[in-house]
């Protein structure tokens, strides 16, 4: 595939865009880790996780178009699936009018003690430079695979001249699916968004997944408030939501349970 390289000037423009937001919210899963689901057709529900700091009401929708979106406007969750399974993730908004959307990916971002990843690391800018299409607002793509990079860890924290302890590295996210609250009137007309048709602050999605580590990026699904990337990062209102993760039995198991139940009822009647 032909790759259209982004001019360096544009990349440095992005640096300025992201510059002031650097420390606030690199990708992390702190307090947003569901742990291990067994999968394998077992019914299992993890404790819900409630957060109050989803940044902006457009952050997820913003990642679904050709210029991608800034990961800082979403929040990352993780879970591990010990066996292949059918996983259901539900998001209930706890802020009136907030419409949640999310995407699930195979793969994890960097974990402490290595430096956490962010959209404006040198490596992330290198990744953006490899992408075709319009100038990107960030590295996060809500409807497909994407990559991000972290910063090197230096011998003396924050001092590049002290030498590198751990080099910067990339992490890849393999897209598994999405779900969005509402309709195209809320999240936009991009093909591939799985809207639930009712903008009521609740959305749920069910995904058949192989064993492995997964990341969920959740954010606002209101595309109309996105606007162009600000020259100077603004402040964004925070929104609250509760996420619930469960595995459900395979559909064939449902059928078996149903048939068994019918059979027993029939036997009892006889
Ligand atoms: Ca966008
Ligand atoms: Ca809904």
Outline the secondary-structure elements.
Blueprint: H1 8-19, E1 33-37, E2 44-45, E3 49-55, E4 75-81, E5 85-93, E6 100-106, H2 122-130, E7 146-149, E8 153-156, E9 159-166, E10 170-180, H3 184-187, E11 202-209, E12 212-220, E13 238-248, H4 251-269
Parallel strand pairs: 1-4
Antiparallel strand pairs: 2-13, 3-13, 4-12, 5-11, 5-13, 6-10, 6-12, 7-10, 8-9
How would you describe this protein?
With 270 residues, this protein is α+β, with helices and mostly antiparallel strands. It has one domain: Jelly Rolls (Sandwich). Helices cover 16% and strands 34% of the residues. The chain has four helices and 13 strands. It has helices spanning 8-19, 122-130, 184-187, 251-269; strands at residues 33-37, 44-45, 49-55, 75-81, 85-93, 100-106, 146-149, 153-156, 159-166, 170-180, 202-209, 212-220, 238-248. A six-stranded mixed β-sheet has the order 1-4-12-6-10-7. Strands 2, 3, 5, 11 and 13 form a five-stranded antiparallel β-sheet that branches. The protein is globular. The termini are far apart. The relative contact order is 0.26. Mean pLDDT is 87; it is low at 1-23. One calcium ion binds next to loops.
Give descriptors for this structure.
5-stranded antiparallel sheet, Jelly Rolls, binds calcium ion, 6-stranded mixed sheet, 4 helices, alpha+beta, 270 residues, globular
Give a quick precis of the structure.
With 270 residues, the protein is α+β, with helices and mostly antiparallel strands. The protein has helices at residues 8-19, 122-130, 184-187, 251-269, and strands at residues 33-37, 44-45, 49-55, 75-81, 85-93, 100-106, 146-149, 153-156, 159-166, 170-180, 202-209, 212-220, 238-248. It is 16% helix and 34% strand.
